[in-house]
Amino acid sequence: MEVPFIREMAEITFHMWRLGWDERNGGNISYLLDEAEVAKYLGAASVTERRKLQLTFPVKELAGRYFIVTGSGKYFKNVISDPEANLGVLRVAEGGDQVEILWGLRDGAVPTSELPAHFMSHIERLKVDPAHRIIMHCHATHALAMTFVHELDEKKLTKTLWEMCTECLVVFPDGIGIVPWMVPGSPDIGRATAAKMREHRVVVWPQHGIFGTGTTMDEAFGLIETVEKAAQIYMLLGDRPVLQKITDAQLRDLAVAFGVTPQPGILS
What we know:
The protein is of the alpha+beta class. The protein has helices at 4-18, 35-41, 76-79, 83-86, 115-128, 141-149, 154-164, 168-171, 187-196, 217-237, 248-258, and strands at 28-33, 51-54, 66-70, 87-92, 98-104, 134-138, 176-178, 202-205, 209-214. It has a nine-stranded mixed β-sheet with strand order 2-5-4-3-1-6-9-8-7, sandwiched between helices. The longest helix has 21 residues, at 217-237. The relative contact order is 0.14.
């Protein structure tokens, strides 16, 4: 029996690997599932017989919630050929201090090491948007390159990206969040990222990658895809003189036309 949310994860991880965003075991995804959907395909009973993993951080806000996540050390290119070895369906235990593995993560595999950042970001995004479902992390090539050469100021980086492509303001009017470089997989980077998620759906990890969110897999992927396209244009420009660009007045007209509100303090 084909399970839609497993197929969706397998397909999106393959596309991200094909684009060069998730080399080796770089990148991770978590997808908040409806309990009824999990029960329909996998069954949500007898969880006491399932493997349990202790969390190093409590997530009581997510107690009883179901997720499908990528595994730690797993290569995105392999998910599509062997989902059960590379993905896992989890249930957060009632106390919020454990996860129960309902399916997948075969042969003792464990969830992504970025699970703290994912869970903390899910908590914050659900406060802002109850329809939120996806956290997606990848090493989008040009966005990563841009963190080496562009000033790491949120408003300045956001405006540069808005100026690179007409659709950018429409797709991410809430702008780009940035956290300082931190060791990945730690609660510290999880907390810092989650704090930025209160106002932004995209957070950049300098010299590392991007965290993007959405209500659907397509929305989260499309958000990162748009940031990456703008970053690619910026990097292609290099040192060439810019003879014309999208002006602040044009960006305001764009916002009015598409009914979006630009993040305050960016447009003059």
